Amino acid sequence: MNDLTTYQSVRAGMRGGDILFFDGSDASDLVHIIGDFTSNAIKLLTRGPTHSAMVYSDSSLLIESTILNGKSGPQWNPLEERIARYQGRVWWCPLSDRVRAMLDFAAMWNMAQAKVGHDHYNVGELLAYVGRRVPVLSYLPQLYKPDSDSEVCSELLAELLAAGGLPGLQPVQTPPQRLAEMRLYAGCTQLAGPPAAIRNFNTV
User: What DSSP letter does each residue of 39-78 carry, written as one string?
Assistant: First the structure.
């Protein structure tokens, strides 16, 4: 279990739409071998976070697309428990006031509710997601045929932000590192894991 002292000190400031970035894996996952392979590939190919999630409307839940506890695809998970049990680094990155003013949160949550329990991972999308990060393969058009029912973590968050009205997003081309680099945030606080910074955070 992670020390939640920092989390508890900032908990009151967390709001729906804020992004959490993760760097590590979920060894407790029933299918963690698949999750570890995907996480390790993302880490190697993007040199950045391996996963991302969004604080949901009431701030006690996360909306994320992952493989966890026998479930795959978009799902709700308890915010505090997710941070406490994650085996690796966790960062909280609140959206800036400028970005918040642009977003239709009702539209975002409507999309989230429609996807949870409906969309699921498939092996083809996981392989395509990793393939899009490989320079020698990234030009192949076959890797850019997004399955609207099978989004990988940061792609789901980019879809939610786009549904809320944030312009210029291409979800199928948005790994966690690219999402972290976008100039969307008011700051970044590490909540768990050995101290480290996210490369090129909030610079693009």
Answer: HHHHHHHHSS-SEEEEE-TTSSEEEEEEEETTEEEEEEEE
Across-strand partners of 68? 71
Mean pLDDT on 28-45: 44
> pLDDT at residue 146 above 70?
no
Structure tokens at 12: 């009151």
Q: Which residue type is seen at 73?
A: G
Domain definitions of the chain by residue range: 5-192
171 vs 142, residue with greater confidence: 171
Strand order of the β-sheet with 61-68 is: 71-78, 61-68, 51-55, 19-25, 87-93, 189-192
Fold of the domain built from segment(s) 5-192: endopeptidase fold (from Nostoc punctiforme) (3.90.1720)
Q: Which two tokens stand for residue 181?
A: 């680099």
Q: Whole-prediction pTM value? A: 0.81
Q: Which token pair is 149?
A: 């029912």
